[in-house]
Amino acid sequence: MLQKGGNFLLEALNAADVFTPEDISDEHRMIAGTVADFALNELAPRVEELEHQPAGLMRELLVKAGELGLLSADVPEEYGGSDLGKLASIIITENIVAGGSFALGHGAHTGIGSLPIVLFGNEEQKKRYLPGLASGDLIAAYALTEPNAGSDALSARTKAVLSADGKHYILNGEKMFITNAGFADVFITYAKVDGDKFTAFIVDRNTPGFSLGAEENKMGIKGSSTRSLIFEDAKVPVENVLGEIGRGHVIAFNILNIGRLKLGAGCSGSAKMAIGLAAKYALQRQQFNLPIAKFGLIRQKLARMITEAYAAESVIYRLAGMIEESMEDKATGAEIAAAIEEYAIECSIAKVFGSEVLDYIVDELVQIHGGYGYIQEYPAERLYRDSRINRIFEGTNEINRLIIPATLVRRAMKGQLALLPAAKALAGEVLNLRAAAPEEDGRPLAEERTMLAMAKKLFLLVGGQAVEKYMDKLAREEEIIGILADLAIQIYAMESAVLRALKAWEAGPAGAQMKLDLARAFVFDHYPQLEKWAKEAICFLFDGDMLRTQLSIVKRLCKHQPADLIGLRRQIAARLLEAEKYVV
Amino acid sequence: MKIVVCLKQTFDTEAKITINPDGKINDQGVSLIMNPYDEFAVEEALRLQEKNGGEVTVVSVGGAKAQDALRQALAMGADKAVLVTAELAAMDEYSTATILAKAIAGLEYDLIIGGFRAVDDGSAQVAGRVAEILGLPVVNVVTKLEVADGKALATREIEGGSEVVEVPLPAVITAQKGLNEPRYPSMKGIMKAKKKPMEKKDPAGLGLDAAAVAARVCALEYFLPAPRAAGKIIPGEPAEATAALVRALREEARII
Ligand SMILES: Cc1cc2nc3c(=O)[nH]c(=O)nc-3n(C[C@H](O)[C@H](O)[C@H](O)COP(=O)(O)OP(=O)(O)OC[C@H]3O[C@@H](n4cnc5c(N)ncnc54)[C@H](O)[C@@H]3O)c2cc1C
């Protein structure tokens, strides 16, 4: 059943309400397999070569991917695309990661590069650009960031002025860190018309007055091109205005929503790949006459890694499935963008959670490799460096954290989300609130489901108090916002992990044990953090008697009997080592 | 030109083989693929079709899951599929070939292509048996194939070289690595495959009774190879170590 964005914080959901990786169709399964094979056989062998950015290689590989239809999933058929839908496009992104930096070029081209035209282009623009973008004849880049306007993208200084004859906009300014810039043919960029109307433009590579800065020397994803764009009286035809003058922010933010989900999907795919490498290495490396996979601390690492990856994968598919469902009756680009905007909160969650899970996993991947993890001959070293960017681009994780509560509060104020009534109702019952004994209903994860329900109350408690105290000035209390964001992220991840396992159990208990264990391990590992964060917020919000009362409420809400995480993780690790790859 | 491709679903070549307590090979949770040699066969059929027109039908004998392998062939571009599910207690190459031949006999064909062997049991018998039952010539282990004027010109591997054979059509050809580079199914192809016809049959529906397809060969036992003993590292300076290695190979391993 289609849920409203953000609603997960208010209502108890059922397993049937979430989409899971186990629910994908046979076609989607074949897409996943084909893309993974393609990445492994055609891309992975070129990764090393690609690191040096030889001229033409990224384009050659993109064209090859285009032949299979891997560039056109989001492009409608009438413009040469294959219109496979958002879920398929996420599945492609998740499975193409063995291509290393290729995945970056692919993501920038098909996602943030092509989507602005797909969603916001006029008929003429779509006809002119989309067939080439779908085949790989044209490569796209997306240029929002400026040297002095990064997180604060709307403070862009690039200006556009209409020429005297009314045929061109004359652009002046600079864009920074633009992926694919070195070889892209089409740049989606933004400039302020007359210095104040933020507007999107399509800029062709051969535009007079347009040039590129030098290639940046990066920490990772070295195979992807990153350059600045320089506009010096660049003459952009008026037909190349994308969308309406002064409405560029609508395009910029909508594109980032879907970009964030895709980024999360890439992180999920990379995380699973890293886990396979970690398990294989741990089995093969011997110390003290034993494979290191025999040692408890290594097994614990492996179990934790796969627990996090399982949660990330559950988040991505849940969200992708929801967005796919919400697309069903949407036709125009604006409708599609609005439907995705509905899930802006979840898209930010997918981005932050996915990128932090991946960073954690590649860090442990290096650790499991010992000294060899620090040496370039092993893929661990590159994966570690390549992962880091994900927390920075498509909105830093700080910016994405700020977006979550801000969007929630905005929707609550507009009455789109019943957050305030729920917080009020909670305030009424708050003194009698205590963690209920789990309701045994014959289904597994009863404790975890009760804990989740309490976690949602905790969120409302802290959120409600914070809004009450600071009202519209809450945005200034960034640390409180950050705590609310972290609570929301963890709740969404826990719930995705739990409901997926439950759904699998309902389909057949025999195949569900690993998922049940992973969900349980995830919840019990992370739950204590919620209490800690909530207390941190409460200590800032209150003092004296009020503080003591509130703290005791938090304590009661979070009360739970801890689980045997060590035993659980041993079993999880054993199954992972048996399979030698990510397996749930 | 009508081409029939025989294909089998096998364990993924990277799958871990384990034996169940009842002595049978454990197929639970194992990922399954189209037999790689059959992929060459499908690819060759599609190339011939692209050149000469006609139709490609893929046929498999297997469990219900084998339709995934058939769908993959459809996604690559084959036109239709036939799946014969046989729920027999034991099957051998005789059973499979008998069923396949019967299913193919009901189709129109100018050429039948299959992989020269399957990567799981590796018997390399089925295509040859099908040819025998259908009374067709067969050319095995083919690495190059040209078809023109009702004839096939096939290059096949022989000890130390290759041989070019001409056969009249219809004929059975078995594919060896090197015949071609199989394509990946395109995303559009995958979405279209869902709508292509897949006919499902069973031996009874083909007019074969249990006795007609009962296995002639029965596997008595399955066992895994003994685990490899740990290797030995010979320390020391290269010259001494080499001498020690030669000695060990001669005296301990007795292989030189
Ligand atoms: C390899 C690479 C590829 C890129 N590709 C592209 C691309 O294709 N297109 C494109 O447009 N851009 C691209 N970028 C740019 C990227 O999106 C920006 O770097 C990013 O948005 C951050 O902006 P900034 O670097 O100016 O950092 P700043 O905005 O200066 O941020 C510095 C720090 O301050 C924090 N911060 C900023 N504001 C706040 C706040 N209000 N509250 C709390 N903390 C805050 C940030 O989170 C960060 O930690 C790319 C960057 C890199 C490195």
From TrEMBL, chain A:
It comes from the Bacteria. Residues 246-406 form the Acyl-CoA dehydrogenase/oxidase C-terminal domain. Residues 455-556 form the Acyl-CoA dehydrogenase-like C-terminal domain. Belongs to the acyl-CoA dehydrogenase family. Residues 141-233 form the Acyl-CoA oxidase/dehydrogenase middle domain. Pfam families: Acyl-CoA-dh_C, Acyl-CoA_dh_1, Acyl-CoA_dh_M, Acyl-CoA_dh_N. GO terms for molecular function: acyl-CoA dehydrogenase activity; flavin adenine dinucleotide binding. InterPro entries: Acyl-CoA-dh-like_C (IPR049426), Acyl-CoA_DH_CS (IPR006089), Acyl-CoA_Oxase/DH_mid-dom (IPR006091), Acyl-CoA_Oxase/DH_mid-dom_sf (IPR046373), AcylCo_DH-like_C (IPR036250), AcylCo_DH/oxidase_C (IPR009075), AcylCoA_DH/ox_N (IPR013786), AcylCoA_DH/ox_N_sf (IPR037069). The keyword Transferase does not apply. Residues 25-137 form the Acyl-CoA dehydrogenase/oxidase N-terminal domain. Keywords: FAD, Flavoprotein, Oxidoreductase. It catalyses: a 2,3-saturated acyl-CoA + A = a 2,3-dehydroacyl-CoA + AH2. Its cofactor is FAD. This is Acyl-CoA dehydrogenase. The keyword Cell inner membrane does not apply. It comes from Desulfotomaculum copahuensis.
UniProtKB/TrEMBL annotation, chain B:
Residues 22-210 form the Electron transfer flavoprotein alpha/beta-subunit N-terminal domain. GO terms for molecular function: electron transfer activity. Its cofactor is AMP. It comes from the Bacteria. The keyword Transport applies. Gene3D superfamilies: HUPs (3.40.50.620). Keywords: Electron transport, Transport. The electron transfer flavoprotein serves as a specific electron acceptor for other dehydrogenases. It transfers the electrons to the main respiratory chain via ETF-ubiquinone oxidoreductase (ETF dehydrogenase). Heterodimer of an alpha and a beta subunit. Belongs to the ETF beta-subunit/FixA family. This is Electron transfer flavoprotein subunit beta. It comes from Desulfotomaculum copahuensis.
